[in-house]
Amino acid sequence: MNRIAVYALGGNALRSPKGDDHDAAVVLAGVMSDVVDLLEAGWSVVITHGNGPQVGELMAMDRTRVHSLSAWVAATQGMIGHELSMNLHAVLERRERPERTVVMTTHVEVDVNDAAFQRPTKPIGPVLDAETVMSADWDIAETVHGPRRVVASPKPLQVVEIEAIRHLVQLGAVVVCGGGGGVPVGWYEGLRIGVPAVVDKDLLSCRLALDLEADLLVIGTDADAVYTDYGTERAQARRTLTPAQAVELDAEGHFPNGSMRPKVRALAAFVEQRTTGRSVLCRPGQALATLRGEAGTTFQPADLVDKESPS
Length: 311
What we know:
Layout: E1 3-9, H1 21-40, E2 43-49, H2 52-61, H3 69-94, E3 101-103, E4 107-109, E5 122-124, H4 130-135, E6 140-143, E7 146-151, E8 158-159, H5 162-170, E9 174-176, E10 183-188, E11 191-194, H6 201-211, E12 216-220, E13 226-228, E14 236-238, E15 240-241, H7 243-251, H8 260-273, E16 278-282, H9 287-291, E17 297-299, H10 302-308
Parallel strand pairs: 1-2, 1-12, 2-9, 3-9, 4-10, 12-16, 15-17
Antiparallel strand pairs: 4-8, 5-7, 6-7, 10-11, 13-14, 16-17
Helix pairs in contact: 1-3, 2-3, 6-8, 7-8
């Protein structure tokens, strides 16, 4: 069986920083290039993706509030998965590759007693007007953009459909799954039901990669590498990091919460628990270059870093 790579793509990476269609197409082309490059290098590929901007847009249009958060996460899994699948099909056929894609609505089990439910902190949806703030039965917090709904972000325990994903990978499919961190579900009176929460998609991707016994976790984002002292004159791109180094730098406050911190934690956790694997952060289109040490940031165990260091 081929080595397995889990490729995690942020919802913002599917959008151009400039917001125009041409640049968005360039970003998507980079993703397709990475996936096909990995396939041609002998990897099996599973794709996960974020959905923050897309869920926000749908929630803004839902004036009646008849749909649950679970429904919007599931809806964006289908929307984004469809877009990725159609584009990838076209590239695979042009390259005369045998693989085909499967888009799977994915649920992730969480603990309904997770402490995160006691202190919701994850902003979702649009900025709220004064009437909604007063009338909505939601947890609401003031953000830099204005008042927004906030929900819990519990830890992912397991992907409900993991065996189906594993089987599809064994059949040679490129599986698009885990969109938006998966639809969170918990056990209530012997039944799994959707819960109003958002699972971090990077932590979900790490959980999925570990459960699949993957050999590689890739996080594609608009950042070209992991930086220390980002935004200052001392900013430095870190081309390699060990889990211990990542933890130390995180404790020193180098990685902003809500942006680079969850990515670094997921990448470090994968390597720490899957010691034969590697994880990388890169821009779409640079996955193989990052594996060669020419771009991005690679996370790997300390003994491998020591072996590759010049004597």
